[in-house]
Amino acid sequence: MKKVVLVTGANRGIGLALCERLLSHDTEGLLLCLACRNMQRAQAARSDLLASHPAAQVDVLQMDTSSVSSVLSAAQEIKLRYDRLDYLYLNAGIMPNPEFDVKAFFKGLFSSNVITMFATGEGILTQKDAVTPDGLQQVFATNLFGHFLLVRELEPLLCHAGRTSLLVWTSSSNAHHSAFNLEDLEHRTGTQPYSSSKYATDLLSLALNQHYNKQGLYSSVICPGFVMTNLTYGILPSFPAFLWTLLMPVFWLIRVFTNTFTLTPYNGAEALFWLFRQKPESLDPYAKYHSLTSGLGNSYTRPHKMNIALETSETLHVKLLQLEREMRTKLCQREKETQTADRLQKT
């Protein structure tokens, strides 16, 4: 029986690299589904994967995790297509309108925190968030809430007696406790929505283990390290591409001192791929599994204990359940209003 694997944000970067590695590992034993916002890019990614793995079974699915209705529609389609899910990679994410604090950067260059600054972006990155049509903060909705709603909808496929399933969240070393506030889940008042959403991801994974392990569903988080992707390039949007290329020798040098500079999507997907080969029940719910690359370019995975508390994770889970109920009520009300307007037009 083929293992059913669904990857969100699979059309490029780390998500696409993961799909390539999965198919290289077991082409005919997988049923792979690429869940993407942009269907044109999803189809292009599917074509690339099939070009290198002609025997593979690769499906595509339209889903925008920032949209409640899109997630619910996609979940219904998934339940029509498949009778189970073995792996659900919650990888889609955004860091919109990043702003680079040049002053803080140069100050950090001459401090003892320089390696941490390069590895995590701590103290030098902020973002300007937006609001979705659902009234949610965009980063929160895309990176966290949309995925939470997807998991809730797919419980019948993920929880089966006699077998295990695994959720894998793409988190970040930029997940800082200082950026997160339980009283401001969506990070409406702060300037670090990305960091807040990733710290919330770490907390949520722990809570999901508490609630689902007895049903055979497990959850883990990974950090891909510092990877050169479009998200990274977006940090300095006016920075010419050739300058990034010129900086690569510097990044390789830094990798001698910190193994978090994975640099390529292939290396960044190391922990995602490593988890695929583990028994879900053997994983540590308090660990974040880091993709690492040595100075010689060898990739490996290492767990690090997360700075999270069970009580905080449970409180977050309760608040997300409440928000889910509110969003479902709003969606039903919106549908009723649309139906009423349609009837009035016809009369």
Summarize the structure.
The protein is an alpha/beta fold and 347 residues long.
Tell me what you see in this structure.
The strands form two sheets. Strands 3-2-1-4-7-8-9-10 form an eight-stranded mixed β-sheet, with helices on both faces. Strand 9 (287-293) and strand 10 (299-305) form a beta hairpin. The protein has 347 residues and is α/β, with parallel strands linked by helices. The protein has 13 helices and ten strands. 43% of the residues are buried. It is globular. The N and C termini lie far apart (54 Å). The protein has helices at 13-25, 39-52, 68-81, 102-109, 114-120, 138-153, 155-158, 193-212, 230-233, 241-257, 265-268, 270-276, 310-346, and strands at residues 3-8, 30-36, 57-62, 87-90, 98-100, 125-127, 165-170, 217-223, 287-293, 299-305. Helix 3 runs parallel beside helix 6 (138-153), helix 6 runs parallel beside helix 8 (193-212) and helix 8 packs across helix 13.
List the topology elements:
Layout: E1 3-8, H1 13-25, E2 30-36, H2 39-52, E3 57-62, H3 68-81, E4 87-90, E5 98-100, H4 102-109, H5 114-120, E6 125-127, H6 138-153, H7 155-158, E7 165-170, H8 193-212, E8 217-223, H9 230-233, H10 241-257, H11 265-268, H12 270-276, E9 287-293, E10 299-305, H13 310-346
Parallel strand pairs: 1-2, 1-4, 2-3, 4-7, 7-8, 8-9
Antiparallel strand pairs: 5-6, 9-10
Helix pairs in contact: 3-6, 6-8, 8-13
Shape: globular
> Could you say which structural class the secondary elements and strand pairing correspond to?
alpha/beta
Beta-sheet strand percentage? Answer: 15-25%
Helix content: 40-55%
The main pleated sheet reads as: 8 strands, mixed
Provide the succession of SSEs: EHEHEHEEHHEHHEHEHHHHEEH
Mean model confidence by pLDDT: 89
